Amino acid sequence: MARIPLVAGNWKMNFDHLEATYFVQKLAWLLRDAHFDRRRCQVALMPAFTALRSVQVLVEADNLPIEYGAQAVSVTTQGAFTGDVSADMLAQLGCSYVIVGHSERRKYHPEDDANIVDQVRAVLAADMKPILCVGESYEERRQGIQLDFAVGQVNDVTRDLAKEDMANLIVAYEPVWAIGTGMVATPDTAQQAARAIRDHISSKFGDPAGQSVRILYGGSVTSKNASQMISQPDVDGFLVGGASLDVEEFARIVRLA
Ligand code: PEP
Fold first, then answer.
1. Does the interface predicted TM-score (ipTM) exceed 0.90?
2. Which of 235, 240, 249, 252 to mutate to test the pocket of ligand 1 (most atoms within 8 A of CB)?
3. 200 is catalytic
4. Domain ranges of the chain
5. CATH number of 6-256
């Protein structure tokens, strides 16, 4: 089954709405210049909540070939939850994706497995696609348990999901030791992890489900390593952090995908 590659830029807590506006306009121009075809590759930006509306206005006004989403979501639908943003609010802003379970959220916020499962459910229920982040720490890699660890995280989150949900689930294999460190996984390492995750989903939900789920690699992706990485059969694109803050570099990565 042909899976359309996805390149998603995780801006983290960078770019106010004016900087986001400039970025989107320039990216759209660079994509047009490169004859970008959204049927062959999808591009998504994950701004801070405060920039989502500005991105939406630009994308919708010019029907730009750029999707967008959020970096986290509340597990509740509405009410007295100060500071939270619901899945429906994001869907109303035209979000297509929400990053769930990023290692920085697991570390700096009380996001445990149960909360991550609920976020995934909330995103799916609002007809958006969760980008579920999994991946081992340096210590787990040193112990040689990296594949079991990443597959275990996928297993925990998908335990109560339905086969049909797999078409909308995106998994980002992001070894924690590679995030923001400049230490990128080898293409072979990324392929092994992506393959193990796909095999797990196939064994649990059937082969069509395993073949339909998109698996991204994330962790110090740049235009220098993207090409070898994307040529791996089970790597369907990237979740890009640092390199997504430079619009020219991000566009280069998109072109390679
Ligand atoms: C990330 O935080 O999702 C990420 C992949 O960051 P970086 O590309 O900077 O390693």
1. yes
2. 240
3. no
4. 6-256
5. 3.20.20.70
